[in-house]
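User: I'll paste a sequence; please echo it back and then give the predicted structure.

Assistant: Echoing your sequence first, then the prediction.
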Amino acid sequence: MSFQSEYEKWVQQPNLDVSVQKSLAAMKDDLASQEEAFSVPMSFGTAGMRGVIGAGINRMNVYTVQQATEGLARFMDSLPATQKQQGVAISYDSRYMSQEFAYTAAGVLAAHNIPSFVFDSLRPTPELSFAVRYLKTYAGIMITASHNPKQYNGYKIYGPDGGQMPPEESDLITKYVREVTDIFDIKTVDVETMRSNNLLNLIGEDIDEAYYAAVATVTINHDLVQSVGKTMKLVYTPLHGTGRIPAQMVLRNAGFENFKLVAKQSIADPEFATTPFPNPEFPQTFDMAKVLGEQEQADVLIATDPDADRLGTAVRVGDGYQLLTGNQIASLLLHYILEARKQAGTLPKNGAVVKSIVSTELATAIANDYGVDMINVETGFKFIGDQIKHYEATGEHEFLFGFEESYGYLIKPFVRDKDAIQSTVLLAEVAAYYQAQNMTLWDGIQALYKQYGYFAEKTVSVDFEGVSGPKEMADLMTKFRDHQPAAFSGVAVSRVEDYKLQQATDDNGEIAKIDMPVSDVLKYILSDGSWIAIRPSGTEPKVKFYVGTSAPDAQTANHKLNDFEQALTAFRQAE
């Protein structure tokens, strides 16, 4: 069926959702928009789906949400009755249509006699993960597009352990989703009927209290927090999202009293009016926090993204504020955890830290120094969750910390996704640790560089918008595979790791198997110890290039980063 025919099919549907009707009308004479919205179905994978809100099979709307949930429901229908009746926990963020999508999902589940447990108002992604474990539901649904702009929303499915649904189950759900032939003929149940039949159960403060109690265990040195936490000045912004209430609660519970919220960004605003790109990776998201920080003479600024799974920070340095990267924040958190546990005599002999393959090797150097194993997994926090689940089953390791370079960290595994609420309270404690030594977090990372060497990393994203985007992304990955670079900026490639082929090839041509799930990622290990990785994003139309290197000083390391970036650009653009 052509995209025009698919568009007309939607236009002719009776009783369409009002927001979908408006979207259809807006693209009536816009063939380019119709083609993008109606040519191919929205991608549904291990991370669920994420896209622009609007009409179409390639858009987030009540019908694509119904289709995704129908796939989950059919999968749960195949389970033993006891597992099916465990039900599904559902949460949502501050975005447009988030609450509507949450109740839409509950209605489809109810049509299959599957109970849902829906939060009474917006809650963070990590609390949804916690709720799955706490309530012992079989699955969880989080309605969020994380740090994307306002036009987006998304749908993530979690498994019984509170982590994102494992690949095997996710593939089955995807199969069921694709078997839904008529997106407009999915049975659903209204709210009143769901409530009267106990198929829709509201949850809220009961889960909050249990979650806050768990986060209270993240604090390591209570005496330090009590002595410094009352005077250290913090500024916090939830970037119009879900972090406002939980971040305040856990900071106060820990003993941090001297903090201020960025008032205008504490409003749960789906427009993200003060920051169009609510991503703590971006410097501009800290503009308002810096103004308040200057007024309050704050020591540390903390920002969490709209679903409060990612955290960024800026530290007072001289007369201004210095932003830290996700890799730097993770290294500071890790070093503090290991040092504090060493001093307390609680550092286990079988401790393990888990990070993604595109994250800093500074963390590896720190872990090695403390006799702790560093486990590398593919990009996606679900793989960190899988390792935790494995350790619990085998006792092989004790999980100590997990992170991704993209500003996601997990301290304690009562949550199985990145958790910016846990990270907020521990980062505040780390800042107090350094302040007690008349140092800042910036001083702290410089001290780690002095001890372990200067590590520098950079991520470059290339966008591929439009209908042709997926093919262009695939073509670019094929280009790198078919014409393997022998060197970047004059530095030889000594090893190529292809996670799609699950094999690593060294410069002698010897091939070794990579024992990880199949993933479209290439990683080049260079002869000087630097590395370069390339992967299509799983949630956005872009290819990401990662570069990591080390040197005795910042100038040399950053010079190498720039050279490698230029070499990547030249190779990518070459005919």
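The chain has a mean pLDDT of 95. The radius of gyration is 24 Å.
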